[in-house]
Design brief:
The complex is a heterodimer. Chain A is an alpha/beta fold. Chain A has eleven helices and ten strands. Chain B is mainly α. Classes of the chains: A alpha/beta, B mainly alpha. The complex binds adenosine-5'-triphosphate (ATP) and magnesium ion. The site of magnesium ion has 4 residues of chain A, from helix 1.
């Protein structure tokens, strides 16, 4: 069993329950996007997967191993990388030092140089700024650095929290393109939380729509964009704009949506 | 003129001890916002233990080499027993906890060594007179060893992967965990460093400033004040702050009244509070360690 499986995941902050039973699966070589409005629990989902928040109940499996009670450090060692909301680069450290810390879990395996070269090839702008402090980079560059830092751990699963936030469209395209490359060339399993629906639909193989802690719709981008109800409720407005989100050949099959509004 | 030089030199020696202690405060605070009030006790414990070892016939150098790891061990055990199990640590909780540790350590030292202050024999060397100022060889040892240890610690934070990992924990703890750096490991190492600098400060200072069960109180206060100059998060400023504080104290004692010596630290603390509205402690995020 490889990739990431989440079953019946619930999570809460003290007495505020935020996730009410989330199921999802990301296979190697697949990009799964999670979309949803502000405050529905997308970040909480990623925090519960990567061990920053201990789930209340449910199962999280990484390459077949149960990780729902492991610490974030342990999960990082097991090959799941989390690119957090707001990037969280180490500001006073140089780009290079951020990369070497990204390789903390793999520092003794002897492949550091290879991985660094590869990360810098994916994000050439970082190579030009290798000795600058991470705090002096632009938002887009910090996003690239956060991604490159995550890749230094040679993960098999990578989860990203709104990597396109606050970036110019061209940069969003660049980042999304890099994700597609990682999926295709390295068979990475990618779980992508996005509010930029256009970007998410362009790159994802499968999309989950979240609302108030539950998945209210899921399917391929084409299926979802075809579903009038989903489109009206979650993808924002009229058919012309959302129609242009997806590939030009939306399949005519009935969308595999389910409504599970009731909380557990 | 030679008066001034004399005061500056003595201040430099005393201040480099404060600088070491200040580094201990910063090492611990920057990783997890823990104010370790037992920091001063490490120096007293190191000095007293070394004195006993020498009295038992252990050569001075060997005594020092034994005492330093001993105090590092004590500091790490304190962390494991008193700090690590606490689930929601805040600076205030840490102050209460380490105040308890400090009190217990002082009581234990009073029981073992009694109330009187004692000194280690001075390190080898002859006192000199240079340009009209008297230079005690022990002061040269203090400055040399303190600066060496401080520079090595600072260098390690800035140039080794482990040191960078410690800084990462300090300025972006969530991201540090996400790349796999354990905050528990980092806290333990920080306490180890605190033990190291405290122990070194205690043994090198003991021959002229003496060691006693309550020596750590004043020393801890001065180290803390020096550390607040850099918001408790900058190692370099802590070292520098210690040196400045030592020199200021000696100038005040020499030109005004030696009774005011200990008031200098409070005055500096007051100034820091007045000048920096964010308070004594800065958030490590975004700042340089
Ligand atoms: N540390 C926390 N403590 C308490 N409540 C929290 C915490 N973090 C998030 N919440 C609450 O949990 C809910 C879900 O937050 P979460 O950050 O997961 O949403 P999100 O979908 O990522 O939103 P956004 O799109 O704005 O990033 C919100 O109601 C939020 O107020
Ligand atoms: Mg979020």
């Amino acid at each position: 069993m490889t990739g990431l499986q989440v079953e019946g995941l619930t999570a809460a902050y003290d007495r505020l329950q935020v996730l009410h039973g989330i199921d999802l699966e990301v296979a190697q070589g697949q990009i799964v996007a999670v979309i949803g409005a502000n405050g529905v629990g997308k970040t909480t989902l990623l925090r519960s997967v990567s061990g920053l928040l201990r789930p209340r109940s449910g199962r999280v499996q990484l390459n077949g191993e149960e990780i729902s009670s492991a610490s974030a450090e342990q999960i990082a060692r097991q090959g799941l990388a989390h690119v957090p909301e707001n990037r969280l680069v180490f500001p006073s450290l140089s780009v290079d030092d951020n990369l070497s810390l990204g390789g903390w879990t793999t520092r003794k395996d002897g492949h550091y140089e290879e991985r660094r070269t590869h990360a810098l090839a994916l994000f050439p702008r970082l190579a030009d700024r290798i000795n600058l402090s991470a705090g002096s980079l632009s938002g887009g560059e910090q996003q690239m650095l956060a991604m490159a830092r995550a890749l230094m751990a040679a993960p098999s699963v990578i989860v990203l929290d709104e990597p396109s936030l606050g970036l110019a469209p061209r940069l969003v395209g660049e980042i999304v393109g890099t994700l597609a490359r990682l999926r295709d060339e390295q068979q990475l399993a990618v779980l992508l939380v996005e509010q930029n629906i256009r970007a998410a639909f362009r790159v994802a193989d499968y999309v989950l729509v979240m609302d108030r802690g539950v998945v209210v719709a899921e399917g391929s981008p084409a299926e979802l964009a075809d579903d009038a109800r989903v489109r009206a409720a979650y993808l924002g407005g009229d058919s012309t704009s959302s129609g242009s989100i997806v590939a030009p050949d939306p399949s005519p099959t009935t969308p595999a949506t389910k409504n599970s509004q009731e909380s557990r | 003129m030679s008066d001034l030089l004399q005061l500056l030199f003595s201040g430099l020696a005393q201040g480099s001890i404060y600088g070491l202690v200040a580094i201990g405060f910063v090492a611990v605070f920057s990783v997890r916002e823990i104010v370790n009030l037992a920091q001063g006790e490490y120096s007293a414990l190191a000095g007293l233990s070394a004195i006993s070892a020498v009295a038992a016939g252990v050569p001075l150098l060997l005594a020092i080499l034994l005492v330093v790891p001993l105090v590092i061990g004590v500091s790490v055990i304190i962390e494991r027993v008193c700090i690590e199990p606490v689930r929601r640590m805040t600076p205030l909780v840490s102050i209460i906890l380490t105040l308890g540790v400090s009190t217990a350590l002082k009581a234990a030292m009073l029981l073992i060594w009694g109330p009187q202050a004692r000194g280690l024999p001075p390190f080898p060397g002859r006192d000199l007179v240079v340009a009209g100022i008297s230079v005690r060889s022990q002061e040269l040892w203090i400055i040399g060893i303190a600066v060496l240890v401080a520079v090595v610690v600072i260098w390690a934070y800035e140039h080794t992967l482990l040191g960078k990992a410690m800084r990462a924990c300090a300025e972006q703890p969530v991201a540090a965990r996400l790349v796999g750096i354990s905050p528990r490991m980092a806290t333990m190492i920080a306490f180890g460093i605190a033990g190291l600098v405290g122990a070194v400060a205690g043994v090198i200072g003991s021959p002229i400033y003496f060691s006693s069960w309550d020596y750590g109180l004043g020393l801890g206060l001065k180290g803390f004040v020096a550390a607040t100059l850099g918001g408790l998060i900058s190692l370099r400023v802590a070292l520098f702050g210690g040196v400045v504080l030592g020199i200021l104290e000696n100038l005040v004692a020499g030109y005004i009244d030696s009774g005011y010596r200990d008031a200098v630290a409070f005055l500096v603390l007051l100034l820091v509070l007045l000048i920096r509205p964010q308070g004594l402690m800065l958030k490590a995020s975004g700042a340089r360690v």
